[in-house]
Amino acid sequence: MFGFEPSYSAKKALDLFKKNNITNIIELGAGLGRDTIFFAQNGIYVHAIDYSLSATNIIKKRSKENNLDALIKVENYDIRKKLNCDKENFQACYSHMLFCMALTNQNLKDLNQEILRVLKKDGLNIYTVRNHMDGDFKKGKHRGEDMYEMNGFIVHYFSENKIKNLLDGFTNISIENFDEGSFPRKLSLVINKKK
Predict the structure, then answer these.
(1) What is the pLDDT of residue 182?
(2) What pLDDT score was predicted for residue 4?
(3) pLDDT (0 to 100) of residue 68
(4) Rounded Cα–Cα distance for residues 164 and 118 (Å)
(5) Are the C-beta atoms of 156 and 147 separated by less than 8 Å?
(6) Are 75 and 59 in contact (CB under 8 A)?
(7) DSSP codes, 123-183
(8) pLDDT of residue 2
(9) Percent of the chain residues topping a pLDDT of 70
(10) CATH classification for the domain delimited by 8-131+158-194, as one of 3.40.50.2300, 3.40.190.150, 3.40.50.2000, 3.40.50.150
């Protein structure tokens, strides 16, 4: 859907990882692995999780083709469940548009607590979401909260207030709005730090 080039948010995240000597991350909603491969090619160990078995199989294949198996662990998993990871195991968590999937506000709060649990002290949680400035916001069938369905796909849209409501256990470092794709999608890049 998005090709194999790394996303804008992955490039920004890598800069932060380098500045903060981060070498061990968890990526939630890794998709086809465009950002996973990019991080690993830059020496970052990535525990990549996605709900789609076909997506995780593609990441495994690409990881092998690029000789990155030592830096990428792939897991097919539903992030609405407790993560299969030890407490304080990662220096950072990265997710590109995972939070705007068909997840309820309660799912998001629960996920936020799981991210908090698996991050080391001062760990970073970097994520992107489609925001209320997006051209598709309030289009299609309303599915409750800030979720709308178009063409069989549900998207959860975020206000700045919703982003700030997910700060339990974190301090917000920055919120940057950016565009992605030819539509374009209007996104927010959120950088939070574990307290």
Answers:
(1) 85
(2) 74
(3) 98
(4) 20
(5) yes
(6) no
(7) EEEEEEEEBTTSTTTT-SEE-STTEEEETTEEEE-B-HHHHHTT-TTEEEEEEEEEEETTT
(8) 55
(9) 98
(10) 3.40.50.150
